[in-house]
Amino acid sequence: ILFEDDYDTESAGMLPDNWSADSGFLPSSFTVSNTTAKSAPNSMRILSKPGNSAFVHTNPGLFTINDDTAIYASLYFPDANGYYSLRTESNEGNQLSSAVTVQIGFDDGLGTISGVPRAILYYNGGSYINSGYTWSIGTWFDIKIVQDFTNHTFDAWKDGVQIFNDANFWNNRAEVKSIHFYVVSGSNDIFIDDVRIGDAPLNTTGWLT
């Protein structure tokens, strides 16, 4: 495992180590929380401010992401009144649309983006593609991504079930340097836990789960 964060050795209410806020948002826009957790007692709480995100980046040498690298995280959304996303980007700083490699989205309860309430989807740079799977309110679930920088595609899993296979990147980037959890819209906080990054063959079943 190249990087792992479950927030359990940090104090609730504090800024978690290794994570940064986008420009325009205070570091206090996200904190360590003991409100809910996938692995007790803590998780990371991202406050409900549209455009707010927390991201971790490779500098200074935390990890390197390549074709054999799996990115894993547990997510918890307490309601369905917002749209949220998980992004990988080729830059080490604030979010830039031109730097996004993969964007997996989690639609709201009205299906505003996809037409399907609580759909899990991705954006390929031109359109949103629905996975056929949904997420549940108030329930922890796991997401894993493995990227192929040669063919500019990615695979993704929800709770160990593959939901995307050879899905196209948003932008054809040759590397990823940061991972973002992003509140696009909504009025409630979201929670992230058990973030892990590790190297394994693309077809390794259950890696990091």
Tell me the β content. 35-45%
Largest pleated sheet: 8 strands, antiparallel
Distance between the ends: 12 Å
Succession of helices and strands: EEEEEEEEEEEEEEE
| Structural class label | mainly beta
The number of distinct β-strands equals 15
- Low-confidence parts: none
Helix-strand layout with pairing:
Elements: E1 3-5, E2 19-21, E3 30-33, E4 43-46, E5 53-57, E6 69-76, E7 83-89, E8 100-106, E9 119-123, E10 128-134, E11 141-148, E12 153-158, E13 161-168, E14 178-185, E15 190-199
Antiparallel strand pairs: 1-15, 2-5, 3-4, 4-15, 5-14, 6-11, 6-15, 7-8, 7-14, 8-9, 9-10, 11-12, 12-13
List keywords for this structure.
209 residues, mainly beta, 8-stranded antiparallel sheet, 7-stranded antiparallel sheet, 15 strands, 0% helix, globular
Verbal overview:
By secondary structure, the protein is mostly beta strands. The protein has strands at residues 3-5, 19-21, 30-33, 43-46, 53-57, 69-76, 83-89, 100-106, 119-123, 128-134, 141-148, 153-158, 161-168, 178-185, 190-199. The strands form 2 sheets. Strands 1, 3, 4, 6, 11, 12, 13 and 15 form an 8-stranded antiparallel sheet that branches. The chain is globular, with a radius of gyration of 15 Å. The chain starts with a strand and ends in a 10-residue tail after the last strand. The mean pLDDT is 88.
In short:
This protein is an all-beta fold. It has strands at 3-5, 19-21, 30-33, 43-46, 53-57, 69-76, 83-89, 100-106, 119-123, 128-134, 141-148, 153-158, 161-168, 178-185, 190-199. β9 (119-123) and β10 (128-134) form a beta hairpin.
